[in-house]
Amino acid sequence: MTSRKKIVVTGADGFVAKNLRARLRDLGHHEVRPVTRLTTSEQLVATLSDADLVIHLAGVNRPTDAGEFVTGNVDFTRTLCSLLIDGAHPVPIVYSSSTQAVLDNDYGRSKRAAEEVLLDYSARTGVPVYLARMTNVFGKWGRPHYNSAVNTFCYQLARSQPIRINDPSVPLRLLYVEDAVDAFVRLIDVPPSAGGYVDIGPIYDITVGELATTLQGFVDGRDSLRIDRVGDGLARALYSTYVSYLPPERFAYQVPSHRDVRGSFVEMLKTADSGQFSYFTAGSGVTRGEHYHHTKTEKFLVVKGIARFRFRNVDNGESYELTTQGGDPRIVESIPGWAHNITNVGDEELVVMLWANEVFDRSRPDTVAMKVVQ
Description:
CATH architecture of the largest domain: 3-Layer(aba) Sandwich
CATH class of the largest domain: Alpha Beta
Shape: elongated
Mean pLDDT: 95
Structural class: alpha/beta
CATH superfamily of the largest domain: NAD(P)-binding Rossmann-like Domain
Low-confidence stretches: none
CATH topology of the largest domain: Rossmann fold
Radius of gyration: 29 Å
Number of domains: 2
Strand content: 25-35%
């Protein structure tokens, strides 16, 4: 098991730090000591006095005065290193640098200078420093209108505000905050013996226009009920980020409900290539279905009530029936070429969850009316 470490996190009230601190809290096997702009010099000395590791996330990237780049990025890093050396307690440092450290601008020069301070600290003390050059970090809890187009776009679209794009072809290289946190946790738990530059990734490439289109698709999905592939990679990270910016009054939304004498039918979600999810209800004694499919298949799960499923092979007349009820975790599947129906044989309302392997297409419904019992 990983030994418990006392970890100092600078910039502890910042975007990346909030996500890192939450993860470390969830893991529960380290002691996290936050350092913010409100931390006094005396408190900083005490915090560092018996630390095992420093995660240095503090920095300045949008100052009102360019001189703050030096004071916030270089001078504070130098102070941090000096306190560790003067206290005869040098410990490894993980530093969140920037890919702009190679650029000739005020911010880039300040981040590069901070790296040089840390490398000098490592050379003098013999303890490793790990330099993580990060780029365009996005994710939950980020500040909109600050330094992430993703966070800003998500915030605006979640509030039905227009987004502004000057050139949709501009490329972006993106880093999801949870991937950054994963990398920091690995550096904490299994640090490399040698310091230096470390990879933080994966890095995703996208244009501003593609980003806007993807995010707008998430917005439109509530009306169309359609959702793109959001289970992994960049799409997963973008969808999670967009949803995280929804204000509480938009946590819930209505979907259409189609009702007739048999009960109601509600479509919940339509996927890009894996069908759709729905549910239906039926009153006592009501039968639904009475059709067959050539290609489409469905999975039924009874959530409430008692249902009798009947099947008949439309080619050879073979028949089959079964009964299941709410609380029984059994899936009943419709089979191509078999007519099927579902009857509520209980006294209470029947509620059945349904997955179909394809999104319903009214022009090609693949649903042929046919009684199961002739």
